[in-house]
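Bench log. Compound arrived from synthesis this morning; before running ITC I wanted a structural hypothesis for how uracil sits in the protein. Inputs:
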Amino acid sequence: MPQEQASLRQVLEFMVAAGIETPLEDRPVDRFARSAPAEASAVPRAVPASPEMAGRAIPAVQPMTGGVAAVPLAPDAAVMEARRLAASAPDLETLRALLDAFEGCALKSTASRLVFADGTPGAPVMIVGEAPGRDEDETGRPFVGRAGQLLDKMLSSIGLSREHVYIANTVPWRPPGNRTPTPQEIAICLPFITRQIELSGPKVLVTMGAPATQTLLGQKEGILRLRGRWFEYALAGKPIPALATLHPAYLLRQPSQKALAWRDLRALRARLREPG
Ligand code: URA
């Protein structure tokens, strides 16, 4: 391989290892030109970040007084807007559409698409994971990659399949490079997942991994301390049981911990068999 190609390859390998997968801009942006007064009247459109994003609606860059381009919603304003939108959704389909059109979370700009839910809305069990990965980002369905295949096996070990559960994530867009979503991204998306749980109305909530457990159940300890414990989740004011357990992606890295997950699954099965 010529030397130039080899070093290019090394750079690309480093970028992939560092989680840099999505170029934000294809072309350089002349920010001085953007703030020039002559441009203030024209509303430039953002350039699609990647070929996959080319078909997606990209918001116009709003000029502000003095010709300075507007910044995205501040985090507090984004949380308030998320709360307002989520509360206004009378059903899951509307919630999905509102979330798809929501521009308050930066994760949306690097993801290919919204990953809203899978399984059966209204199912007795609702599972909430962390965030979509690459496979989920490509298909728009949660838990379809390796972790999802393990989740299917875990469910099947207690006689359940995707039809018996409803599945979503703490954040509905893939974080770049599969990093953990930041507390701010989680806070902005929280009103949507909370409303999604409320509208689906499960009998039992299962949180998989630390982000979902800590966020939805208001806990601070690590997942190894929290797993296997039952909590109360206030669903529209009425408490429902919520079980914290290990994330299948963690189990793929730590297969010896599958025994702990199996204990949690048996506890879930026993709870589902209880009358009422
Ligand atoms: N991990 C998650 O938490 N959610 C998915 O949808 C896929 C992997």
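What the model suggests: Residues 75-272 form a domain with the Uracil-DNA Glycosylase, subunit E fold (CATH 3.40.470.10). The two ends are 67 Å apart (CA to CA).
ITC booked for Thursday regardless.
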